[in-house]
Design a protein that fits this description.
By secondary structure, this protein is mainly alpha-helical. It is built from 4 helices and no strands. The protein has one domain.
């Protein structure tokens, strides 16, 4: 079991703190999926996207960014679960040494 341990306690604590940012990302993904006007500056559009007659291209860009947010949530969850497993292995190692 100790062979799966690859991170020390300080690095694992840093990983958990970084993965806590993943709590905010789903909220952003939801706001992007409802095409929130306050997030228009975060959409990768060009000038030609606004000259088209329908806003469909802008809505597609909103959906793309929303999908990217939810992919990031999945990665944060994987990273957080890895960090949590490393915490458990570090505690097990401490118990075995004591």
């Amino acid at each position: 079991m100790a062979s799966l341990l690859c991170c020390g306690p300080k690095l694992v604590a840093c990983g958990i703190v970084l993965s806590a940012w993943g709590v905010i990302i789903p909220v952003l993904g939801i706001f992007f999926s409802v095409h929130s006007a306050m997030l228009i500056e975060d959409i990768p559009f060009t000038e030609s996207d606004f000259t088209e007659s329908s806003p469909q291209k802008i809505y597609e860009l909103y959906e793309q960014v929303s999908c990217n947010c939810f992919i990031a949530v999945g990665l944060y969850l994987l990273f957080g679960s890895f960090s949590f497993c490393q915490v458990r292995l570090n505690k097990c190692k401490q118990y075995m040494v004591s």
